[in-house]
C-alpha cells in the first residue's frame, strides 16, 4: 500500500520501466561526470546530478530530497523532524526517478547503493576512485561543494525566491554534505577543516562498503580511475572501444564555473518577470548578485 503524503506517489508509474544496466558507485569528484560522458558513447543513457537538475521541472529534486529524508531521517538543520508517511524508496520509486536512463553515476544516486543493487540485480557495477587518492579527493570536495554551498546569493536571494530550482537544489547539496560528515547540521558540516577527518573516513568507508556489498551478492566490480582510459571499461561492459580519447570533464574550476552559470540563469528566470512585484530593492539585490557571479 502506498505511503500517504509522499510526492513520489503523485507520479504515475512508467508503463515500460527502463532497466538500469550500469551502476557507478563512486562518490562525487571521483570522475563521475567523466563517466557520465563516457557511458553514452557506449550506448547507455547516464543519470548524473546534472540530469537530476535538468529533470527538476518533473519534481526530481523534490523526490531525491524525499528519498534522503526517508532513508537518513530529517536534516539536523531543519525544524521539520517528522517522517510520518515516509517509507524508504525501493524499485517502484527508482523506476519513476530513473525512467529513460540505463546507467547511474554521482550523487544523489550513490547515497542509495544498497537500494539500487537490490532494484537492479543484473546491473554491472563500477567503483570510481580519485586517481590521486583520498587527499586529492578532499581537496576537490573543498574546491567544489564547499565553495558553492557557501555562496550568499543562495541564502539571501535564490532559496527564498526560486522555489522551482534553488529551494530544493541547494538544501540537497548541503544535506549530502551533512550525511558525508556523519549526519551533523550544515552549520558544522560547512567547516571543512573541522570535518576533514570525517570526510576522509567516509570516502574510505564508502568504497569498502560498496565492495563488501557487491562481494556478498557475488557481483564483480570494476574499480576504475579515469586515467585508465577506455580499455578496462569496455572490456568489463563487453563493448567495443570507441574512437577518441576517454573524456575528462569537470576538472579544475569547471563545476564552480558551471554553478556560476546556473546562478545567473536562475536569477534571470526568477526576477526577469517579477521586477514590479519585488520592487527596486530586490532588483538591486539581483544586480549585485549578477555582478558577484561575474567577478567569480
TrEMBL record:
Coiled-coil annotated residue ranges, if any: none
Membrane-spanning ranges: 269-293
Keyword Transmembrane: yes
Gene3D superfamilies cross-referenced by the UniProt entry: P-loop containing nucleotide triphosphate hydrolases
Keywords: Membrane, Transmembrane, Transmembrane helix
Keyword set includes Metal-binding: no
Record-linked PANTHER family: P-LOOP CONTAINING NUCLEOSIDE TRIPHOSPHATE HYDROLASE PROTEIN (PTHR36978:SF4), P-LOOP CONTAINING NUCLEOTIDE TRIPHOSPHATE HYDROLASE (PTHR36978)
Protein name as it appears in the record: NAD dependent epimerase/dehydratase
Organism: Zasmidium cellare (Wine cellar mold)
Lineage of the organism: Eukaryota, Fungi, Dikarya, Ascomycota, Pezizomycotina
Amino acid at each position: 500500500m502506498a505511503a500517504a503524503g509522499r510526492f513520489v506517489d503523485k507520479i504515475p508509474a512508467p508503463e515500460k520501466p527502463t532497466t538500469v544496466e550500469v551502476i557507478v558507485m563512486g562518490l562525487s569528484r571521483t570522475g563521475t561526470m567523466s563517466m557520465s560522458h563516457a557511458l553514452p558513447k557506449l550506448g547507455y543513457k547516464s543519470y548524473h546530478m546534472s540530469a537530476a537538475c535538468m529533470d527538476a521541472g518533473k519534481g526530481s529534486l523534490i523526490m531525491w530530497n524525499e528519498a534522503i529524508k526517508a532513508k537518513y531521517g530529517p536534516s539536523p538543520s531543519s525544524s521539520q523532524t517528522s517522517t510520518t508517511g515516509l517509507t524508504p524508496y525501493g524499485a517502484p520509486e527508482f523506476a519513476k526517478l530513473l525512467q529513460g536512463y540505463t546507467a547511474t553515476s554521482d550523487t544523489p544516486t550513490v547515497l542509495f547503493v544498497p537500494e539500487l543493487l537490490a532494484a537492479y540485480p543484473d546491473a554491472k557495477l563500477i567503483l570510481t576512485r580519485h586517481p590521486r587518492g583520498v587527499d586529492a579527493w578532499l581537496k576537490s570536495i573543498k574546491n567544489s561543494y564547499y565553495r558553492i554551498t557557501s555562496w550568499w546569493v543562495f541564502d539571501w536571494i535564490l532559496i527564498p525566491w526560486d522555489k522551482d530550482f534553488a529551494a530544493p537544489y541547494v538544501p540537497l547539496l548541503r544535506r549530502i554534505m551533512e550525511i558525508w560528515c556523519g549526519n551533523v547540521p550544515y552549520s558544522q558540516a560547512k567547516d571543512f577543516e573541522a570535518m576533514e577527518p570525517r570526510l576522509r573516513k567516509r570516502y574510505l568507508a564508502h568504497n569498502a562498503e560498496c565492495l563488501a556489498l557487491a562481494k556478498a551478492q557475488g557481483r564483480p566490480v570494476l574499480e576504475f580511475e579515469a586515467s585508465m582510459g577506455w580499455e578496462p571499461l569496455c572490456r568489463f561492459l563487453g563493448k567495443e572501444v570507441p574512437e577518441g580519447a576517454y573524456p575528462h570533464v569537470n576538472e579544475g574550476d569547471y563545476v564552480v564555473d558551471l554553478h556560476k552559470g546556473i546562478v545567473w540563469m536562475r536569477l534571470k528566470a526568477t526576477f526577469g518577470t517579477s521586477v514590479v512585484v519585488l520592487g527596486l530593492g530586490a532588483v538591486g539585490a539581483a544586480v549585485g548578485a549578477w555582478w558577484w557571479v561575474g567577478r567569480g
